[in-house]
Amino acid sequence: MGAYEITLLTSVGIAVTAALGLNLITGFCGQISLGHAAFYGIGAYCAAMLTKAGVSFAPALMAGGLLAAAVGVAVGFASLRVRHDFLAITTMGVGFLFLGVVRQQDVLGGELGLSSIPDPGLGKTGFMALCLASAGLAALFTTLIKRSWMGFAFDSIADDEDTARLLGINVPVYKLIAFGIGTALAGWAGGLYAHQVRFIFPDSFGFVESIAMLTMVVVGGVGSVLGVAIAAALLTLAPQWFQVIADYKLLVYGALLLLAMRFLPQGLAGLARRLRGAAP
Amino acid sequence: MLALELFVQGLIQGSVYALIAVGLTLVYGLLRILHVAHAGIFTLGGYIGVLVTNGADSLALALIAAMAGGGLLGMAIYRLIYEPILRQPPYVALIASIGLYIAIEEVFRLIFGPYGLTYSDPPLQSTIQILGMNLKWAELTMMAAAVVLIGGLALLAAKTRTGLAWRASVTRPRMAESFGVDVVRVRYLNFFVGSALAAAAGVLVALLNNLVEPTMGTVPAYKALAIIVLGGLGNVRGTLVAALSLGVIEAFGTIYLGKILDRDAIAFAFLIVVLMVRPQGLFGRA
Description:
The structure holds 2 protein chains of 2 kinds. Chain A is mainly alpha-helical. Helices cover 77% and strands 0% of the residues of chain A. Chain A has 12 helices and no strands. In chain A, α2 runs antiparallel to α3 and α9 packs across α10. Chain A is globular, with a radius of gyration of 18 Å. Chain B is mostly helical. Chain B is 74% helix and 3% strand. Chain B contains 11 helices and 2 strands. In chain B, a hairpin with a 2-residue loop joins β1 and β2 (133-136). In chain B, α1 runs antiparallel to α10 (236-257), α2 (38-56) runs parallel beside α4 (90-112) and α6 crosses α8 (183-209). The termini of chain B are far apart. The chains are: A mainly alpha, B mainly alpha. At the A-B interface, α4, α9 and α11 of A face α4, α9 and α11 of B.
């Protein structure tokens, strides 16, 4: 495998991990989030600051995930106050707030970001294996959740929150759990990202990034683990294929988003269902 | 003195927000869609404004052309994109709209280049002294235009039969339809008027900054979403108050909070604080 393929697969592993986290919040539990990149960024900044200060890689990654989860639960409290479109805009606001704060902090490198983040020392192939393993574990873990009692509770909240409450499901607790786990995965992925590129700056975690993650979830088919993993992989690789049309890259990306929603609102999972339904 | 000046600058910025956000909240009120691509129409307005002013040497003509062009684009967006997906869950339209906005931005960048265009002979740049402040005519025009256009809209909604049909379709769409209101016509009108206001804002902002660029809509796109939520989604009066207050809060915030937060984050900090206290927005009904 060449160095180029290794880099690509590493990016795929990171993207799938983060997207599966969002799938848990938005897909399973029905809480739309337009600020997922902020948690990815919190994990990235936290892990990078720690390894730069001499902490070893594994605890730094974990700390990144935990800090993201802590902030995620705090934002989760917002989902207890506001719903639907209001929640979408609130989480979008959290994303902008994260950027606005990071940009003004000299400790975090301000606009210029953090550079010379230490190499975790796993080698390129080892690091790729770690990222792919993270993605695999995230897929396994979220599939298990989906099949458990908790998955049923999430599903009922996504379907009809008021009825779920009536059935005696503790809606606030489950929402906070969804935000906690989902943002922990994002933070973990962010820590991996920081040590892959070893140079991070605020714009890597902006609104466009949050939308890219939400796109992976929606294009994959909201709630479908396999669909989201495939969409995350495809959408990470797509810009590489678009290199040929470098100047039109973003135009094609925007148009794809638009067309996917216009003609395929159920995502890849919906398409698969339809094909299976059509075949005898 | 500084306070007064900041207040006036805040009102000027606030009237820009108001012109953009009114169209957005109208679309939300009628269709429950968060119409991010609205900011693309704002950008289109800016470009038409500069191109027509430079070509035909008339700002008035440019304003009319921009409003007509923006309005038509808004109607086309409704017909081609939103109408077929109205029955899908709300995030479908939201993501489609974001995709469309990215595409519009890119079209401007590819056609006119990344660095933007300027007026060859920018009109209304002379200043006038009011209460010891130096204000540009362009800034006064901005405020006047916001008052005239939004006031006109309010009159239209309050006094005409069309306005009555419009308001009826917002509050009780089914009932309005059974009383013979052509709901589809109302939607087209809604998109035309809202988009025309955003395009007018584009022309006037281009005049204030003497610059149009492909990304000029990005910050207004998301800030306008914050504003309509603050105003209590779909509530026009609330949106106006929210837009003006946000302009003023930003003007003061940049001076006093600039060290901790950048200007664009202030809006969202304000938004989050308000929503935690009043989840239905400042003026929404619970």
